[in-house]
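Quick start: read one record
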Amino acid sequence: MKNQTEIKAEAGKQELFITREFDAPRELVFKAFTDPELLVQWLGCESLTMKMERNGHGRGSSWRDIFTDPNGNEFGFHGVCHEQLAPEMIIRTFEFEGLPEPGHVCLETVRLEILPGYRTKVAVQSVFQSIADRDGMLQSGMETGVFQAHDRLDGVLAKELVN
């Protein structure tokens, strides 16, 4: 059975949780979350291309990604890495640049857990500044992007395991 991405957002709370199991060892999954060459292959909706402007995967470093749709429209996201403990955790901020007012920042914690059989569970907790910010993110179509990205990540991990 194919692994499924689960997104939970409890009513009245400022956070959401994303979980997914991957058929790859934790070190490789962590690499896919931090290596620019792998990250651009899977992150975001499948209809978008990704360009990594800054790869901030060390404490205090900034990151910025730009996604382009087939019509040439660009969507930017940026933040700061607060902690990176290879291969078990990444803590960073995340902000979408397309909102009318800047400052809608979320704190994202990515935890990678070893599972039997060289498998990995990824658990993401995103804490928003308000319930409205969290709900706005959900209404933006982010769920589709997460599902598509995780499916593509499966392919990237399978290819890396063969190499």
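The mean pLDDT is 93.
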